[in-house]
Amino acid sequence: MRSILLDAGPPRTHAVVFDEGDEVMTGLRAFAAETGADAASLVAIGAFSDVTLGYFDLAAKDYRRIPVREQVEVVSLVGNITRAQDDDDPTRTVHAHVVVARADGAALGGHLLEAYVRPTLEVIATESPRHLRRRHDPATGLALIDVDPGGRSEAPRP
Fold first, then answer.
1. pTM of the predicted model, to two decimals?
2. Is 2-154 assigned to CATH 3.40.50.300?
3. Which of 20, 38, 45, 48 sits a CA distance of 20 to 30 A from 115?
4. Are 21 and 36 contacting, i.e. CB atoms less than 8 angstroms apart?
């Protein structure tokens, strides 16, 4: 994975290019940590040799895994980067959804759990000038973006 700063902004905009064999979610988390991005939107196109999609089962409060073990085109990948739930945790969270197309044009989509690039994946990451943080939602079991006006999500960056 390689990246370049396209615009120092604000907002800062990066191009992140993945090479064959790179695992996408691990790479996106590394990119977020390296750049300090804690509020960014992601869009991407490319292809995978192997991908695991997820469908969130609300009753089970867990993802059903949907393995796709074949070459597919990334028709659309959208997502975001946020800070983790704990105020003292510097970890960035990557949340992405993807639509992939098989050789016959059939599309599959869902939450991106894991993916291996083949031959490339081109991501544009656009940072927000404000922080975003996730908070645990007990009703769903998910870590959702906290937009509480009194919370840290509203604090402007220094």
1. 0.84
2. no
3. 38
4. no
